[in-house]
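Q: What structure does this chain adopt?
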Amino acid sequence: MVKGLKNYFPMIRTKNEILQEIRQNENLNNVFNSWREEQQKEFLDFTSGIKGVKILYDAFFKEIFNPENKPERLETLLSLLLGQKVKIKRILPGDNSRLADESSLLLMDILVELEDGSLANVECQKIGYKFPGQRCACYSADLLLRQYKRVRDEKGKTFSYKDIKKVYTIVLLETSTVEFHKFPNDYVHYAKPHVDTGLELELLQEYVFIPLDIFRQKLYNKGIVTPLEAWLTFLSEDDPMWIEKMIQQYPEFIPLYGEVYAICKNVERVMGIFSEELQILDRNTVQLMIDDMQDDIDGMKALLGQKDKALLQKDEELLQKDEELLQKDNLVNQQSEEIKRLKNRLEELTTD
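A:
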C-alpha cells in the first residue's frame, strides 16, 4: 500500500505552506506568476511530495552526485553502467566553448576524471536530438583532444600516446529518438570500436546510451530487478508509487531522497533551479522546432526537385512527340504531294 512520500520524508511541506511562503515574498511571487498554470502545478507537486523530484535536473543531480562530497554514488552508477570497478579522481570543469551551443541542449552535464586517468562524461537530454551518434562522436573527439593537449603539456618531452586514456560518453535520454525505439526491449546500449579481424588495438572512445522512456516501459511491465534498474528508477521516475517501491526494496536510496527534499525546503533556491530548467526546455523545444522545420524545408526541396525532374522529363517527352508529329506531318505532306502528282499524271494519260 502506498503511504505517501511525506511518511518517509517528514520535512516535505504542504502546497499551502509553500504557496504561503511564495506569496509573502514579492520577488518569488513575481517569478511564480510568470509561469504558466501547468508549470506552477508541476513545481508545487514535486516540492510538496505529490510527485517525485526530477533528479536529472542539473542542480539536483550535481548536488546528490557531487564527487567531492559523495564520490561513491557516481562511482557506483558508473561501475554498473561500464561493467567495471570505477574510482573517481576528480571532477573536471566543462568546456564552455565546446560545440557552440551544446550546453543549451542538455538537462545535466558532468565530467569526471577516473583514477586510471580516463574521462567519463555523463549527460542527460530532455529531448533526444537528431543524429545522436554523430553528435556524441564529435563531443567524445573534443574530450579526447582536450585530454591529449593537457597530458602532452604536463608530460613535455616524456609524452607518449600510451599516456592517453579512454573517454567514456554516457548519455541519458528522457525522450529518445526514433533509432532507439527500433529496440523496444533494450534500455542500455554499449558502443565501442573494434577490428573485424580480431586485431587488438587500444581504441579510446566508448559510449553508453540509456533511453529512459524505454526503460520506464520495462519498469512498468517487470518492476525493479537489478541494482542498475534501481538507479535508473531513481534518476527517471517521479511517480510516488514507484519511488516507494524502490526505497522499500533498496533502502539505501532513502538518504538520497532525504537530501533532495532538504533542498526543496529552500523555496527560493528550488524556484531558481526550476526556472533554469524551464529556460533549457524552451530552448530545446525551439531548437527541435527549427530542426523539424529544416527537415520539412529539405523534404519540400527534394519533392520540388523530383517534380521539376518529372516536369522536365514530360517536357522532353512532349518535345519528342512534337518531333514525331512533325515527322508524320512531313510524311503526310510528302504522301499528299505524291498522290497529287499521280492524279495529275493519271489525268494526263486519260486525256491522251
